[in-house]
Write a structure and sequence with these properties.
By secondary structure, the protein is of the alpha+beta class. The protein has two domains: about 130 residues, Hypothetical protein (Archaeosine Trna-guanine Transglycosylase, Chain: A, domain 4); about 170 residues, no CATH class. Strands 2-5-4-3-1-6 form a six-stranded mixed sheet. A six-stranded antiparallel sheet has the order 12-11-10-9-13-14, with helices on both faces. Strands 7-8 form a two-stranded antiparallel ribbon. A hairpin with a 2-residue loop joins strand 10 and strand 11. Helix 8 crosses helix 9. The longest helix is centred in the C-terminal third of the chain and has 15 residues. The two termini are about 40 Å apart.
């Protein structure tokens, strides 16, 4: 769904239908259903000191960090001097609850409906997309396992040329190419989960035997007190797996990796696990290894 993050108390004023024009410095061509997210930004002091404005906010509880209502975005109007004068004269409450200056834009909202259960989210700039985990898995099902070399050729298996010719794709490239190894697919998952307030983490596990060095990357999130392993690229374990603790989750992935990827030939000194942040795109195999090794080391033996 399409979402717009708005500072409080403006977001709640929209939810309460006290404000049906969102004023912005930029134009949008989007029309259609739009969800309103109340950002986590605190209400500026100058707002609180504006008594005329705050009388519209009185008795409304704020909804920081939540998607709180949906509406229809039906128009985006360039603000001329005449338009602003009309709003000031005929829609004074809207005028007080917006930032009306020549050259800005008035986003016209209709059919505002409050959500019975607000959705916690971090939000993003501009109009952004919010997907639940089942929708994300459906999107990921469009991606095959494989990789793209430096010349743009597709490969179904990580063969002997992989280490020399692989480059990490961006999420948009994975979508366009419809192919990626776990390294690529996790970046696409990270992109789809962006905006969620679910403590998203990504991990890199490797058996550093100095030969093949088998690896796997995977994404996890925390929701309602439970921990989830979101897995698409590892066909045998494709799905969303639930755990009571993060330790249980990591131990399960570790055990599966040992059993199915390195045939139980495990030396704890060689089995390494890192939590890593988003890497740069278009990097090589060695650069990706280096990036992950500079992440947060997790002592698997002590889990």
């Amino acid at each position: 769904m399409k979402v717009l993050s708005i500072k409080e108390p403006y977001a709640t004023l929209i939810k309460e239908k006290k404000k049906q024009i969102e004023t912005r410095s930029w134009k949008t061509d989007y029309r259609g259903e739009l969800y309103i997210h109340a950002s986590s930004t605190k209400i500026p002091r100058e707002f609180k000191e504006n008594k005329e404005f705050m009388k519209f906010v009185k008795n409304n509880s704020m909804n920081f960090g939540k998607i709180i209502c949906k509406c229809q975005l039906v128009d985006c109007i360039y603000m001329t001097k005449e338009y602003i004068e009309d709003i000031k004269k005929n829609h004074y409450q809207e005028y007080i609850c917006g930032d009306y200056k020549e050259g800005r834009y008035a986003w016209i909202l209709e059919d505002i409906v409050s959500l019975k259960e607000p959705i916690k989210a971090k939000g993003q700039l501009n109009i952004w997309n919010y997907y639940n985990e089942l929708e994300i898995m459906d999107f990921m099902n469009n991606i095959d396992y494989g990789w793209i070399d430096k010349d743009g050729n597709k490969h179904q298996q990580a063969d002997q040329t992989f280490s020399k010719h692989y480059i990490l794709q961006s999420p948009s490239e994975v979508i366009a190419n419809k192919i990626g190894v776990c390294w690529d697919q996790v970046e696409l998952e990270r992109y789809y989960f962006n905006g969620h307030d679910w403590n998203i983490k990504t991990y890199f596990i490797v058996y550093d035997d100095g030969l093949k060095c088998p690896t796997h990357t995977f994404l996890t999130y925390e929701k309602n007190g439970k921990y989830y392993w979101f897995e698409h690229s590892w066909e045998q374990f494709k799905g969303i797996h639930e755990y009571d603790t993060k330790k249980d989750l990591l131990l399960d992935v570790k055990d599966k990796f040992i059993q199915y990827e390195i045939n139980n030939q495990s030396d704890n000194q060689k089995l390494l696990l890192y939590e890593y942040q988003r890497p740069k795109y278009h990097i090589s195999v060695q650069d990706f290894f280096n990036h992950c090794h500079h992440g947060k080391y997790i002592d698997i033996a002590r889990l």
